[in-house]
């Protein structure tokens, strides 16, 4: 039955392009990666007030420490792996509307796995936390100064609570400074 609305006008949130470059991601996570990526990206978008009609695209690559280390060295001058890299398509400030391409997120499996183990977190929860963190970076949030870090952490805590994930900053040793 036609209710007069164009199906093309109905959006469900950001478009996500997922690439799995390291097959071991399939054994690390308890649920399909695409479901968890969608859940985290949509929660982050909603958490900053972007509606389900937002027309932007996010690329997520599930990679390994070696590839992330090379990218981190090339683009950030840091010759070491990190848990997630965020590459915004264009610089945004918090509250700016994203363009058609929001940016790229690249995650390092071994680093995520080690951090989850060392911090006694489930890999699933840490994975979704890093994705939320990365999307916030793409949307212009940062943690270079204490006020920025406080704002970003508060957003992350609220978004993650909506996903049923405990406050990842409850232990003061694990602040946003430890994330990219």
Automatic annotation (TrEMBL):
- InterPro entries reported in the protein's UniProt record: MetalPrtase_cat_dom_sf_prd, YbeY, YbeY_CS
- Record-annotated residues binding Zn(2+)? 133, 137, 143
| Record keywords, A-Z | Cytoplasm, Endonuclease, Hydrolase, Metal-binding, Nuclease, Ribosome biogenesis, rRNA processing, Zinc
Principal place where this protein is found?
cytoplasm
Q: Which domain of life is it from?
A: Bacteria
What does the UniProt record say this protein does? Single strand-specific metallo-endoribonuclease involved in late-stage 70S ribosome quality control and in maturation of the 3' terminus of the 16S rRNA.
Tell me which family the UniProt entry assigns to this protein: Belongs to the endoribonuclease YbeY family.
Would you tell me the protein name for this molecule? Endoribonuclease YbeY
């Amino acid at each position: 039955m036609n209710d007069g609305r164009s199906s093309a006008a109905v959006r469900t949130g950001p478009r996500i392009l997922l690439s799995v470059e390291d097959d071991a991601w399939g054994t690390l996570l308890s649920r399909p990666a695409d479901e968890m990526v969608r859940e985290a990206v949509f929660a982050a978008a909603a958490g900053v007030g972007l509606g389900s009609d937002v027309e932007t695209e996010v690329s997520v690559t599930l990679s390994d420490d070696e590839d992330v280390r090379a990218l981190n060295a090339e683009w950030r001058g840091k010759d070491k792996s990190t848990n997630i890299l965020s590459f915004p398509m264009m610089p945004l400030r918090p509250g700016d509307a994203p363009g058609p391409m929001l940016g790229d997120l690249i995650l390092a499996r071994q680093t995520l796995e080690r951090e989850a183990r060392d911090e006694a977190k489930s890999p699933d929860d840490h994975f979704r936390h890093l994705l939320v963190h990365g999307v916030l970076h793409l949307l212009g949030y940062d943690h270079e100064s204490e006020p920025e870090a406080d704002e970003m952490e508060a957003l992350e805590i609220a978004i993650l609570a909506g996903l049923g994930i405990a406050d990842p900053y409850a232990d003061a040793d694990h602040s946003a400074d430890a994330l990219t």
